[in-house]
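Lab notebook, bench 4. Still working through the backlog of constructs that have no structural model yet. Next entry is a single chain of 443 residues. Request: give me the C-alpha cells for it.
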Amino acid sequence: GSVADYARLLKVGYLAAKTVDDSAQVLFGGLANNFSGDLLNFYENVLDIYDADPLAANNGYFHDILATHSYYYAWQSWYHVFRAGNSLGAHGLNKPIWLNETGVPAWNDYPGPVWDQTSPYRATLSEQADFIIQSAFYAMYAGADAIFHFQLYDGCGNQPRGTDFPPHNGELCDANGMLISDPTKPCAGDANGLFSNPTDAACFTQHTTPESPRQNNATYRVLTTYVQDVEPLWRERPGSEDPYNGPQEWIAFYRPSSGERIVGLWARFGETEVAQLPAAADSALLITPDGVTQMLTAVDGFYTLTLPAATNQNKPADWDPALYPIGGRPLIVIETDRRAPVVSLSISRVGATINLSWSGDDNLGSGVQDYVILVAENDGAPQLWLQDTTDTSAMYTGDPQASYTFTLTARDRANNVSDAVTQTVAPSNLVPGAFLPLVTGGN
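Model written out:
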C-alpha cells in the first residue's frame, strides 16, 4: 500500500482501539529504515498527511508511541531516533520513541555461516556484544525512551519456518546458498539471540549447546545493571583536529539519583586509541562488555584508557571503505562527580550601568546547573542579587558614585560548588549632570 493507505489504516485502528479502551497505547508501526529516497521519510510523510486531518490534533496524530529499528551500523541507532524526534518536533508533538528492534547477527556461531567471515551485515560474537553497548549509548543519547534487543533466542530469524540443519562448514550449501538436501531452505541462518535456540524450536534446533548464553547476554546485563535511569550529558569525538570526526567516541550520561557520570568510550576506526578522560573524582569503576569490573585511579586529573581497534568490515562493497559499522571494544567508566566547576566573570561599567557576563566549566563532569551572584556596595556586606540562575549575563544598575563588588559561584548537577570569583568595579568617573565643555580647534 501507499503512505496514504498506511495513514488511513493507523487512524482507523487508533480510533477503534481508543473506543474500546481509552488507556490502550497505540504504536506507529516500527520503521524498518532499510530504504533509501523518500521512503526513508515515511514517518514524516504520514505526519504531513495528518496535518491536514481535522481529527488529528485532538487524537494525538493517531498514535501514542513511535517505534523505529536499527541493525548492524551502531551509529544509526542515534540517527534514526534523532530523525524521529525531529519529525515529532516539526509537527509540535512530543511522544515516546522506542527503538524496538536493534541487533546484529553473528556469523561465527550456529546457525550463522561460520565459514564466511565476510558475510554481509554480520559480526563476530565479540563484535555482536560490542554492538549492544554502542547501539544503546547512541540511541539513549538521541532520546530513546525504550530499547528492545532483537532477540532473546535465535528463533527463525529471516529464514522460513522449519529451516534446520546440523552444524557445518559450508559443505551442505549449493551454489545459491541453499541446502543441497532442500533447495527451498537456506543453508545458514541468523544467530541473533542472547541465547541459542532450544532443541524444540521451530528452526535451527541443532546447536552444540542448546539454550546457551552468548557473549551478548553478559553485555545486555551490563546495560541493565549499570546504565539505568540516566539522562544524556555530553558527546565528544576527540583525537583529531575535526571535533566531529575524531577516532574516539565518548558518550556520557548523568544519573541524578546517585550523582554519577557514566561514560562509554570506544575506538571508531581500525587503530588502537589511547583515551585521556578528564576525571570527575579520584577513582572510578571500569566495566568491560563481559561484565568484568575494576577500579581506576585518576592520575593528574585523568583516566588513561586503551581502546581496542575496530575490526568489523562486513559492510556492502559500496559503503565508505573507511567506515567501521561497529566500533572497537567499548569501555564504560562510572564515577560519582566530586569535582567542582571553575567560573570566570567579566564586568564593564558606564555610569550607573554595570554589565556582567560569566561562564562555568565543569570539564566534562556532570555539567553546570546554575549560578549565584552576590553584590556589595562600597564597603557594605554582600547581598544576594541572582540566585540559582542559568543566565550567563545581566545588567546591574547602581549609584554612579559607588563602587560595587560582585561575587560569583557555580553549582554543578552533583551539587559541587565552585570557588568564588570576586571582582570590584570602581565608581564611574562621570559625575551625573556634569557640564562637559565643547572644545573646537582654531587657526
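Notes after review: Confidence is low (pLDDT under 50) at residues 434-443. The helical segments are 3-20, 42-51, 76-90, 125-142, 215-226. Flag for follow-up if needed.
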